[in-house]
Amino acid sequence: MVLNKPKKSNIAYQWWADHKRLYTKPTGRGATWTDEHTNKYPTAGHLFVWGQSLDFEVDGKTLIKLENVDTGGGPSDGHIDYEVAEEEYALEKVKEYKNARVAYFWHKGSNRLIEKPPSKRQGKWETTGGIYFMYANKIHHVNDLSSSSDKI
Fold first, then answer.
1. How far apart are CA 137 and CA 32, in angstroms?
2. Does the residue 128 lie in any domain?
3. In a domain, 1, yes or no
4. What is the tally of structural domains in the chain?
5. Please, are residues 150 and 1 in contact by the beta-carbon 8 Å criterion?
């Protein structure tokens, strides 16, 4: 399968084996951060995102960051750390938690690090000012791709 890489974090792709389809999940279109389908059908789908590997692993998963992406707010949020003024401090906190089952969003404007548990099924995939940290099952590095720098 060959995809045009978006080269930005605000577009995700979801592959559903049963449907034999690849769905585009751009921010602002109602896609929801949830583990509901994955729990029911663990091998039926895969999520592909464009992010940066942070070379840190927990439970065999690699921590990555996505810029200017969040999964909503309010009822979808878990624990919140306040007064997290720098991205480096947010990353340090995420590494300390060592929890690959949830994602975290560092909101630059309010200096908050917000836990994003997919089990709450409320968060909408959206664009916002900050850094989204999540763990990936597998990393595909740009150097591992074909000779075309805009395909994966």
1. 19
2. yes
3. no
4. 1
5. no
Reduced to 3 states (helix: H, G, I; strand: E, B; else coil), residue 60 is coil
Q: What pLDDT, in 10s, does the model give residues 19-69?
A: 788 777 777 666 666 666 677 777 777 777 778 999 999 999 999 998 877
User: Number of helices and strands (H, E) in the chain?
Assistant: 2, 9
Q: Is residue 92 part of a domain?
A: yes
| Beta bridge partner(s), residue 136 | 62
Domain that holds residue 32: 11-139
What does the alpha-carbon distance between residue 26 and residue 44 come to, in Å, rounded to a whole number? 21
Question: 57 Cβ partners below 8 Å, 6+ apart?
Answer: 63
Tell me the pTM: 0.76
Helix (H) or strand (E) holding 83: none
Whether 145 is in a domain gets the answer no
Separation of alpha carbons 135 and 121, rounded Å: 18
Residue-wise pLDDT tens digits, 64-94: 998 877 777 667 688 999 999 999 999 999 9
